[in-house]
Amino acid sequence: MTSNLFAPFAMRGLTLDNRVVVSPMCQYSAEDGNATDWHLMHLGQLAISGNGLLILEATAVEPRGRITPYCLGLYSDVNEAAMQRVIDFCRLHGNAKIGIQLAHAGRKASAHRPADGRHALAEDEGAWETVAPSPLPMSDRWPVPRMLDRAGMDDVRDAFVAGTKRSERVGFDLIELHMAHGYLLHEFLTPLSNQRNDEYGGSRENRMRFPLEIFDAVRASWPAEKPLGVRISATDWVEGGWEIGDSVVLAEALKERGCDYICASSGGGTGAQKIELKPGYQAHFAEEIKRETGMPTMAVGMILEPDHAESLIADGSADMIALARGMLYNPRWAWHAAEALGAETTYPVQYERSRPSTWPEAFTQIKAAE
Ligand SMILES: Cc1cc2nc3c(=O)[nH]c(=O)nc-3n(C[C@H](O)[C@H](O)[C@H](O)COP(=O)(O)O)c2cc1C
């Protein structure tokens, strides 16, 4: 049996060993933006577990772009050194290719960690000023963000470029730009949070302009042989918001600019969203974007069964499959999926003796008992 999920996938000069991706996951475990021992452990184990690609959590390109005070950053030399230590460790022991998700939280910044309630920080809790396309808060429980003027937008663009250069120095294989989940670049895209009257608001073309400028600036400062992908919220799940048809147009524009893949996530921009959660609930967005534009896509969202992941690649819905919670639940998901699909993936030499083919007797007995 040949597995589609475990077939290599090439983008520019990068070839993934397989199409299993660790989805970016904030760990809220950084100190002043610096990766800590938690990252060493968390990313280290995921780098050795047979995944094709490991994408680091949303990483802020400037301090005010962090969601919480505990978010990872790549805006200072100290951040860069802390990140270097973790990535060197992952490279030494692991085989996964390593990407970073560069992000800016916009009006959703300056918040508590999920474990502390996710709500906005108060003044006496170290709140900072947030920025957004328009002075519209997330809800009446959130502060009004400062509307970015052109000079402010230049600062954000320059921060993305600086983060890109740092990512190159650290040695990442791939960058994913975070244009999803109600953070700054998504805030520009959707009319729910962008009510500007200038050339960056109003029509869809205008709302796409700043996110596309960021894409161009990052692409221009990232080596030509390295892939640059984009995660979007394919829909806001709200009437009058951003919709899948808009995402197809955005994907087409990104494709023209040299984008290497679209990861089709959704929502996050408003508390009014109505999402029907079920296995693979966002996969049809990846399928539609791929069908309409020919762009490679990454599907994500409640994909847990190896057969499900395999079928999404086999039927042409997506080129890569990202798992988040499933990877936390079972960090060896790729080993188990490879076994279930009759495929091979990598083990570190230290753990080679756990590979089922090296002690088949145990597995034969488990299968017989099933
Ligand atoms: C702990 C945690 C942290 C997350 N952090 C991020 C993030 O930094 N960037 C992002 O784009 N999505 C983030 N997500 C969303 C996941 O990447 C993924 O899209 C979502 O959880 C759906 O996939 P799943 O059903 O496999 O968990 C996070 C999800 C979890 C569970």
Annotation keywords:
alpha/beta, 8-stranded parallel barrel, binds flavin mononucleotide, 370 residues, two-stranded antiparallel ribbon, TIM Barrel, globular
In short:
This protein has helices spanning 37-47, 77-93, 150-170, 184-189, 204-220, 244-256, 283-293, 306-314, 325-329, 333-340, 360-369; strands at residues 9-11, 14-16, 20-22, 53-60, 97-103, 131-132, 146-147, 174-179, 228-233, 261-265, 297-300, 320-323.
* Total number of strands: 12
Relevant CATH superfamily: Aldolase class I
CATH topology: TIM Barrel
Structural Rg: 20 Å
Tell me the name of the CATH class.
Alpha Beta
Structural commentary:
With 370 residues, this protein is of the alpha/beta class. It has one domain: TIM Barrel (Alpha-Beta Barrel), CATH 3.20.20.70. It is 35% helix and 14% strand. The protein has eleven helices and twelve strands. An eight-stranded parallel β-barrel has the order 3-4-5-8-9-10-11-12, surrounded by six helices. Strands 1-2 form a two-stranded antiparallel ribbon. Helix 3 packs parallel to helix 5 (204-220), helix 5 (204-220) runs parallel beside helix 6 (244-256) and helix 6 crosses helix 7. The longest helix is centred in the middle third of the chain and has 21 residues, at 150-170. 50% of the residues are buried. The model has no long low-confidence stretch (mean pLDDT 97). The structure holds flavin mononucleotide. Residues 23-26, 57-58, 101, 178, 180-181, 231, 265, 300-302, 323-326 line the site of flavin mononucleotide.
